[in-house]
Amino acid sequence: MAKVLAALRHHWKKSTFGACLLGWGGHWLYGKHCDNLLRRAACQEAQAFGNQLLPATMPLKKATVFLNPAACKGKAGNLFEKNAAPILHLSGLDVTVVKTDYEGQAKKLLELMENTDLIIIAGGDGTVQEVITGLLRRADEAAFSKIPIGFIPLGKTCNLSHTLYPESTNQVQHITNATLAILKGETVPLDVLQIKGEKEQPVFAVSGLRWGSYRDAGVKVSKYWYLGPLKTKAAHFFSTFKEWPQKHQAALMYLGPTERPPEEPEEKSSRPPLYVRLYRRLRSYWSSPKEFPQEVAPEDWEELKVSTIELSIATRNRQLDLTRTEDFMDICIEADSVSKGQFVHRGSLKMRDPHMCPEGSQRIQASRCILQLPEGTEGSFGIDNEEYEAMPVEVKLLPRKLRFFCDPRMREQMLQAAVQ
């Protein structure tokens, strides 16, 4: 024992390195063990759903999964197979997994999709944007938009998960919670933005559109990976070397909020008897002719000249209120008089909350807007973190267009917040 202690003291550098390596290895193994326990508990909960008895005449529910293996730097496929796939298969669902091979493929696959009971999106914000765009471009979108949608967050950016699921620092727990939420069946209605250019087909978004200097600097953060935690500030700092202040000129026309209609009942009433239908038809036939409806008043558009460092148009999905009486989207026009220090600081904050609207910005609530850009405008839009060429667009709010599965705890928190 004395010889061992003497050797450790004599080679103290190697001993210290070995102790650190051993401690790190133990911590890593303990983390793997905890992840396996989380997976096992989630599978046991899913098996309880799968063991439920069904009538012989009731077919299994079909679930179509759109998986983007390239998400999360190519790790999404492995994350799905280890954490989400076992839960789905144990739940008793008839699961079909569709893997996308290239960007934009999900939009084309949605055009060919046959009837399904559930749509599950496994990826990041870009995958969500592709799937809902392909879904709402269908000729029969009115029927397909009623299919509930599940979201398994596997991408680098998953802003929608902040609304649907509780925050978790453990990736395995976050994925298993999201998958189990699909089985529990609780849903919330989410707004969708329809973004249409002059010639292109419309694009749909659940988060929103960004145009400006913060977005342009944010897409360059990965180029400064070698700076570690300073890469975000570096990207925004070096972008200030351009012409300063950075101004984006545009013309904005918009309509105000609209009153929310009552929600339609999910189950349709049964068809009335034959004699009731005959009576109604005869009464409508012999009744006096209806008066022609009065002309609808022209829409009251507001016009605004814009000079901003960044403009964003966002849904209210991040601050979801299930009891609000008006439907609108938030337009944030940030002042162009920003110092370089403020730009770097706010840029770091916007990496965590892209649609943050800082103090001093002009806020507008609108149900529809038209963004006109000067001829020759360069740059790009960020639509749900996907890049599109900047062009004049019309943005229309589609309130409560899609229903997404959510964690029951999050839905309960939304209802409690509304009551308070």
Automatic annotation (TrEMBL):
SUPFAM superfamilies: NAD kinase/diacylglycerol kinase-like. Its EC number is 2.7.1.107, 2.7.1.138, 2.7.1.94. It is found in: Mitochondrion inner membrane; Mitochondrion intermembrane space. Signal peptide: none annotated. GO terms for biological process: ceramide biosynthetic process; glycerolipid metabolic process; sphingosine biosynthetic process. One of its GO terms (cellular component) is mitochondrial inner membrane. Its cofactor is Mg(2+). GO terms for molecular function: acylglycerol kinase activity; ATP binding; ATP-dependent diacylglycerol kinase activity; ceramide kinase activity. Pathway: Lipid metabolism; glycerolipid metabolism; Glycerolipid metabolism. Keywords: ATP-binding, Kinase, Lipid metabolism, Membrane, Mitochondrion, Mitochondrion inner membrane, Nucleotide-binding, Transferase. The keyword ATP-binding applies. The keyword Metal-binding does not apply. It is an enzyme of class 2 (transferase). It is a peripheral membrane protein. Gene3D superfamilies: Probable inorganic polyphosphate/atp-NAD kinase, domain 1 (3.40.50.10330). Belongs to the AGK family. PANTHER family: ACYLGLYCEROL KINASE, MITOCHONDRIAL, SPHINGOSINE KINASE. This is Acylglycerol kinase, mitochondrial.
